[in-house]
Amino acid sequence: MYWNNPRIELTYPSLDQDPVFQGLHNGTHCLFYDPSVDKKSIKNNQSLQTLCNWANGAIKQQGIRGFVQDPVNHYDLANLVKLNLWVHDLPVNGSIKPMLLHYIGQPQYTTGTGESRLRALERVPEISTVSAFVSTHVQHSHKFDHLESITTFQRFAEICQAVPGQQFLFRLTDANAPYGLDWYEYNSEKTANVTPGQDYCVAVINCYLQTHPETCFSPEWFDSVIDWSRYQNS
After folding, report:
1. Strand order of the sheet with strand 7-11?
2. Within-domain flag for 4
3. CB 3.0-4.6 Å disulfide test: which of 2, 15, 96, 104 passes with 182?
């Protein structure tokens, strides 16, 4: 709904503007930090099985070549590679970036940032909780009295363990929305090795599928340890 709202870009530490404070919309919205959210309490819009069904169906319909060359497929196609990497990285390094969750009075949170990570955690049962910022309307604030209230970009960035020069992106809603902060992202050297760009992911999954044309994606496929660098220049 808020995809067309402008992105706010700033570099830590920044005193030019404060999107976290702006996102409170003069007290209409609240933002909290929860270091331990049960992953079962978060609504997952696309499970690994759903992603696999889509990929297998698209390959059957388009063929491997058509599947990979169709730009419409590239975002989810790249997620196949990233999710495979994350399934193996999360047990070792944990979930470094806090998720952004929205609470709108329903039993489960919805996601603003981090839903792909949630899919990867389907294959990591030993991790049952994630850290997250929770954006909600002030009418629900009493449900989060036990959590730290976040009102400034400075504190937000500290929780993200930001270092000087780090780039942040934010997208806000408006005063009439059920939550104030719609989405955020930031670059991190800690996750750089497991967050390859889309072009790289498309290239290596193409080579992988050409090498393994019998591939049928399933949630168990993500458990496979794949050296994607082998397919980089194939």
Report:
1. 7-11, 167-172, 181-186
2. no
3. 2
